[in-house]
Design a protein that fits this description.
Rossmann fold; Nucleotidyltransferase, domain 5; six-stranded mixed β-sheet; five-stranded mixed β-sheet; 39% helix; Cobalt-precorrin 5A hydrolase; CbiG_hydrolase
Length: 262
């Protein structure tokens, strides 16, 4: 869920443009208690676009901040739509990439202040599912996750899972349909990123030997591809039949030099 807040008529016009470009968004224009309304939306985990001064946004959200691993992504825009500032949860919550996506939609400049803004990240999807899971269930979940992360299918490097899913036709077909690599990884490989998981399931561990298939597979694939420390962009999401997570890693210097030499 994306909530857009605007305080001025010019801000409202910009918000209405965004509503057309991001139909899943909703608009709150000059709510009676701006700070309280913003804080409640933030605490519900809604991603926020605040069209206001950065100082107003900071003072409003400061009382409800928890951590970069839990807070939803927040963007601040000027009312003319010239600048997009990823204010909170830049890496972990995906605000940096979402900010770039919004800036592209508006023809604006994304003002990113977190580390590694000059490197293009590699995004990987991890998925787990019931045996013989219908492709539609996988596709719908993946589409929802991409929307939450502010990404498109074109941004994704690969679809990944645990090796016991190497013959799962729904996953194979989904990846092939979008011309993505489908990769599976062993339990020892996935166990190496255990410390990066946002949540752990004892049931999943007892069943397959890792505490989470989707997050582990996404993280390990990002690390394998980029050669640098991976991070979760979107923690595990699920529907009745499948789970999905999105990870990211930035190419390190060695991998960049290797690519130049190819």
């Amino acid at each position: 869920m994306i909530r857009i807040f605007a305080l001025t008529p010019a801000g409202k016009r910009l918000a209405e443009r965004l509503l057309l470009l991001q139909p899943s968004s909703s608009l709150s224009y000059r709510p009676d208690n701006f700070a309280s309304t913003v804080q409640h939306a933030f605490l519900r985990g809604e991603r926020l676009i605040l069209i206001c001064a950065t100082g107003i946004a900071v003072r409003c959200l400061a009382p409800v901040l928890v951590s970069k691993h839990q807070d939803p992504a927040v963007l601040v825009l000027d009312e003319q739509g010239e600048f997009v500032i990823p204010l909170l949860s830049g890496h972990e919550g995906g605000a940096n990439d979402w900010g770039f996506a919004v800036a592209q939609l508006l023809g604006a400049q994304c003002v990113q202040t977190t580390a590694k803004p000059y490197l293009k990240p590699i995004y990987t999807v991890g998925m787990g599912c019931e045996r013989h899971c219908p492709e539609d269930a996988l596709a719908n979940l993946l589409a929802d996750c991409l929307q939450q992360a502010g990404l498109s299918m074109a941004d994704i490097h690969s679809v990944n899972s645990i090796d016991i899913k190497a013959d799962e036709m729904g996953l194979i077909s989904l990846a092939a349909k979008h011309s993505l690599a489908f990769q599976t990884w062993s339990v020892p490989q996935l166990a190496t990123v255990e410390g990066l998981l946002s949540q752990r399931s004892d049931y999943v561990f007892a069943t397959v030997g890792v505490y989470g298939v989707a997050e582990s597979a996404a993280l390990y694939a990002a690390q394998d591809c980029a050669g640098d420390s991976p991070e979760l962009l979107l923690s595990k999401q699920k529907n009745a039949k499948a789970t999905c997570a999105i990870a990211r890693a930035y190419p390190n210097t060695n991998s960049i030099e290797a690519q130049k030499g190819q």
